[in-house]
TrEMBL record, chains A, B:
Lineage, uppermost ranks: Bacteria, Pseudomonadati, Pseudomonadota, Gammaproteobacteria, Oceanospirillales
Protein name from the UniProt record: Oxygen-insensitive NADPH nitroreductase
Start and end residues of each Nitroreductase domain: 9-164
MF GO annotations: oxidoreductase activity
SUPFAM superfamilies membership: FMN-dependent nitroreductase-like
Keywords from the named record: Flavoprotein, FMN, NADP, Oxidoreductase
InterPro entries per UniProt: Flavin_OxRdtase_Frp (IPR016446), Nitroreductase (IPR029479), Nitroreductase-like (IPR000415)
Residues making up the signal peptide according to the UniProt record: none
Family: Belongs to the flavin oxidoreductase frp family.
EC code(s) of this entry: 1.-.-.-
Pfam families registered for this protein in UniProt: Nitroreductase
Amino acid sequence: MTQSVIELLKQHRSIRKFTDQPVPQDCVEQLIEAGQAAATSSFIQACTVIQVNDPTKRTALASYAGNQAYVASAPVFLVFCADMHRHQRICEWHQAEMLSGFTEQFITATVDCALFAQNSAIAAESLGMGVVYIGGLRNQIEQVSELLQLPELVYPVFGMCIGYPDQNPEIKPRLPLSVVLKQDVYEDKQDLAAIEAYDEAVRHYYQTRTGGKKVMGWSDQISAMLVKEARPHMLDYLQGQGFLKR
Amino acid sequence: MTQSVIELLKQHRSIRKFTDQPVPQDCVEQLIEAGQAAATSSFIQACTVIQVNDPTKRTALASYAGNQAYVASAPVFLVFCADMHRHQRICEWHQAEMLSGFTEQFITATVDCALFAQNSAIAAESLGMGVVYIGGLRNQIEQVSELLQLPELVYPVFGMCIGYPDQNPEIKPRLPLSVVLKQDVYEDKQDLAAIEAYDEAVRHYYQTRTGGKKVMGWSDQISAMLVKEARPHMLDYLQGQGFLKR
């Protein structure tokens, strides 16, 4: 390997089109083991991955995610679940009464999952594969949970398609460093000016990539998105699963 | 680089003791840029990092985090914040009315932060540095927020100490693969037996590492932790910051 790890990280872009080349199961297991190696809050290890192979389930998930066909067709599809059910069973086993439903536990389990998944994503990319996170699973999260038979205290944070890339999209430009890195205190006086310049770079990116069909900056996309409700079913669903009760 | 990326990921362990070797600022910026390259939900880019240099602030943070001295002494200390304040300002700028407070937005911002931070952590480790996540910042999260002057719709998810390792701890064994990777559905009938065997491996790890002072398995640690309240102030604090209101 001559490429540096930082180069690899900076070359990330979502891959939504994959070749037919299969990903052997021992390779999937390597990605999971790489995920497990990530830091875990107080050693809680609250991530469980469900690998979905069954074509009927895949088709259903693709539809639940808002008709993202690659969820059905990708060589590998993983669902990363925040899991405190395991811990509940352990407490019962040790005859200890688990205090659940704390927002803090929701944060640690969700963060655990994200760190785990990001390690798996990087591991896949280091082997020449491409990935895309599927947050769209949260569109119909109740149906996803039923399909995967998720018990209480488990929720699907996101999915991930994995395979060998059959496309080569450009890397999307990110916010200027001055906007995301602050010194000692949160200070954002100069941010809007920097974002205005960044909007130009984003417009240029879309112009190049879509041949002028979608030409938007970043801030106009964001503001258009945020005037809408964001999956308003989420809190009810999560409380139903035993999370975020206090 | 002869070491594979997966090898690098699997060698992670938290580093809490650092040499005096400074980390140049352009190196810190590289870690942040690596973080920015991570996937971001709907391009929302909801992570802001506050690099804390001021020794007085560092000492305060070390105390807030439950007297973790390395928070004060590490060459670099970063606070990863989930940030929707930026988006609120953008909406105002575009004269759009942002609908905030959705649990979904809390999830995407928190996950964004975690993916970002994990990239930064891996980038640091790839350069021979070591890191430790500091979830303890959430112990006194209100005070941390005041100290860093965090506005509404920003919360510190965790901190991270970064520097060159002055210790070489063993890698902590992780749960058996069969416990964390499921096929098609959530199915845990065999898990407790696998966890019982894993407890032995964890006990052995502590025996080796602590010379017999702390000898616990995994499941007994977890159950002892979960009979206690988990930062019960968190929901009030987050709602005060404008999160998790619906």
